[in-house]
Structures are given as C-alpha cells and as structure tokens.
Design a protein that fits this description.
Length: 435
C-alpha cells in the first residue's frame, strides 16, 4: 500500500514538472499575498489610462518597540497605527485615487494609489508622503507618547509591461520597500546601479511636441520630453524620474537631458525655440550655472535666447537656497523662464509673483472641456490678465479638441500645444516645420 502511494506521488511529480516547469512558476514570500482588490484596482487604473503606485512606510525600530511595552499594548499600537494612517490618507487624497489602504506586512505598511498624469507629478507624491507621515506621527504621539517609531519611506510605480499584474504589483511592492529601507545588497542597490548606468551612458532619448501659434497654426517652439532606455521599465518618465529622485541622482539625470537637448538642436539644425523641463531642485543647485556654461562652450552656435527653462513638477521654490539667484543669472545670459501647470494650484500662482516668468503655461485642467464650462473660460481670462500684468506670453497645454482651440482663439491666447495639434515625436529635420 505504501509502495503504491509512493508510485502515485512520484508519477504526479513527474507529470507536474512536464505540465508546470519550475522556470514558469513564481513563488511569493508568505508575508505578502497580493489581494484581488489590489490587482483589480491596478488593472482598472491601467484601463483608464492612469498609472498605479505603491507607497511604503517602513518602521525601522519595530523590534525595539515590541520589546519596550507589553504585548497587549504593542498590539494596540499596531492597530492604532493602521487606523491613523488610513484616516490621514483619506483626508489628504480623493477617494477615487485610493486603490487600497494600510496593507500591513512585516515591519511596516503600504498603500496603493491611482496616479493621473494630468493631476499628479513625482514631487507631489513626495510631498504627499511626508505630509501623511507627519500627521500620522502626530496622532501616534498623542496616543503613545512613550513610543518613538522611526519611519522610512519609499514608493514605486507598478510596471505596465509586465505580463502579470499580480507579479508587477509584487515587484513594485518589493522595490518600494527597498527604496524605504535602502538595504545593503538589496533591490535598492540594483536600482541605484541601473539608474547610474543610464546616466553614465546617457541612455535616454527625447521626444518633441510642437507648440503652435494659435492664430496662424505655425510651429513656434518644441517642448522636449524625456524617455528612458527603450523596452525597459525606466522608459516611462514617471519610473525614470522617481527612481532618480529617490536615489539622489535627479540633478545628474536632468543635466544629461540638457546635454542631449543641445546635441539634438545641433544635429537637426533647429532654429525654433526649445522648452526644457527642470525641477526647482536642479535649477537651484549651486553647480547648475557652471555645468550649463560648460555645455554651452561645446555648442557655441546655439543661442541662449533659443532656450526656455520650464519650471515643472510643482516643487516649492521655498528653501532652495540658490534658486532665485540662479534664475537671475540665467536671465542675464539670455535664457527665458517658463512656469508650468499654472492654474493647477496655489504653488504655481505664487511662483509667478516671485519669478515673473517670461512664459506662463496654463495647465490642462483649465483647458479640458473649456468650451462647455463658462467658469473655466473665466479662469482662463483671469490667468491672461495675470500674464499681461507680469509681461508674460501664454501657452495653453492639453488641447485635444477643435472646440477647445476655438475658445483659445477668441480669447487671443498666444500659443498652444496638445494632441489636437500633434503628438510628441522624434525631432528630425523633415518635421521641423510640418504638422
């Protein structure tokens, strides 16, 4: 009987290896099981054209905390921890952007969010993470003043190209945890190596979207858009810049973008204006002006008047020591300054008064369906008055329909860009003056 049982098991294992080869199987650690609601939420976000990201808060001193207090109080602490984070997240985020809350694992907790390209950016995620942590820590300190949990934070976008959403979610979770912990010999080091390799080899490519004269329909300028190595997870600008930011290599990456842009202008002999996106962190770096002059020395045929530095990402300029000083130097050299996402929030409006930009870019949230919304058209008129007072040109972003373009035309908006006119493309000589 025993012999027969062994023979049956042996045959079952043999057929199992044939039907389910080990190379095709995926094993997940027992402490993390992706629940269906998370997978379903991520899948729905992808179908709607959005991204999904996992944010991790790791408790560095969890073991020490567990030894400081009785077990029943420790369990109460963990329970309250989850409740406070859940409540703060719901206060700070809209319900539609939350995929899953307080998924608890090992030494920390995580939550999943929907990321809309038009409403979110990397610096906003950074700011959101810090704000949630501050509020949760305040609540914890009130309830458990004797405990001092120490948190690390990390986040990662879920890769769309992975054949299995479940596996992609797990991978993003592990990478976000690695970003939070910054462990030795971990995924963090692998990502650090990967992004360092991208920067050292300048392994990025640039797409260009035309900026159109609303009245004449002629191309007046191009905005450069960065993509990482083709066919990799870092091809997505969200992935590329989020990893660079968390590994403290954002400045290096943006300088590669600047250098590649100058090289592209020279190669295609572009004479039109070029918009290049920069975060205030980079523009405020004490090395920026010096490094920019080194690049200019290699491309003396490119005039500073041709380049527009577009301040993007909605980063606050407060506290960035050399930002306004560098802006003055850039203007003195001949470069122009644009502010992105105007109308999307207080930060961009406040920046206008401090910087007095040459160009104001009106956010897509104002332009979308403006032909159907009189309040939005009133907002547009108000922003045009602000631009006139500041002496700034106006570029409207995100135009997707003819009706939206008509509203811009009757309000005498200077310039516009969006899918209605043209999608981003590789910049070549033959496309410089054609739509």
């Amino acid at each position: 009987m025993v012999r027969q049982f062994i023979e049956v098991c042996t045959k079952a294992l043999m057929w199992g290896k044939i039907i389910f080869p080990l190379s095709k199987l995926r094993f997940y650690p027992p402490q993390f099981v992706v629940r269906d609601p998370i997978v379903q939420g991520v899948r729905k976000a992808f179908k709607e054209g959005n991204e999904a990201a996992v944010i991790v808060y790791n408790i560095k001193n969890l073991k020490d905390l567990s030894e400081q207090i009785p077990q029943f109080l420790y369990r109460e602490f963990i329970k309250k921890l989850k409740i406070y984070f859940r409540d703060v997240i719901r206060q700070e985020m809209s319900e539609e952007d939350i995929i899953a809350l307080h998924d608890y694992y090992s030494d920390g907790l995580s939550f999943y969010i929907r990321v809309n390209h038009d409403r979110h950016c990397i610096s906003e995620i950074d700011g959101l993470m810090k704000k949630i942590l501050r509020e949760a820590e305040r609540c914890l300190h009130t309830s458990f003043p004797m405990l001092q949990p120490v948190f690390d934070m990390g986040y990662m976008f879920v890769e769309k190209k992975n054949y299995s959403i479940r596996e992609a979610v797990y991978k993003a979770q592990q990478q976000a945890l690695a970003m939070a912990e910054k462990r030795v010999q971990s995924d963090f080091n692998e990502m650090l190596y990967t992004i360092s390799k991208v920067i050292s080899k300048k392994d990025i490519y640039l797409l260009a979207q035309p900026i159109i004269d609303v009245q004449t329909k002629e191309i007046r300028a191009w905005e450069m858009l960065t993509r990482g190595p083709q066919g990799t997870a870092l091809e997505s600008p969200l992935q590329l810049f989020s990893v660079a930011r968390q590994t403290s290599l954002l400045y290096d990456l943006e300088m590669v973008v600047l250098e590649k842009t100058f090289e592209l202008i020279k190669t295609v002999e572009c004479k039109q204006d070029i918009f290049i996106n920069f975060t205030p962190i980079t523009l405020g770096n004490e090395r920026f002006v010096r490094d920019l002059k080194n690049i200019m020395a290699k491309h003396k045929n490119i005039s500073p008047q041709q380049i527009v530095f577009e301040i993007t990402e909605r980063d606050s300029i407060e506290g960035i020591k050399d930002f306004l000083h560098n802006i003055k130097i850039l203007r003195a050299i001949g470069f122009r300054i644009a502010i992105d996402d105007t109308g999307a929030g207080y930060a961009s409006l406040n920046s206008i008064s401090e910087i007095m930009p040459d160009i104001i870019k009106i956010d897509k949230s104002v332009i979308q369906n403006i032909d159907k919304n009189s309040v939005k058209e009133s907002m547009l008129k108000g922003l045009l008055l602000i631009a006139k007072e500041a002496g700034s040109l106006v570029v409207a972003e995100g135009i997707e329909r003819e009706e939206e373009a008509t509203v811009l035309s009757r309000n005498n908006v200077n310039l516009a860009q969006g899918f209605y006119y043209a999608r981003p493309k590789l910049l070549k000589k033959e496309v410089l003056f054609s739509l």
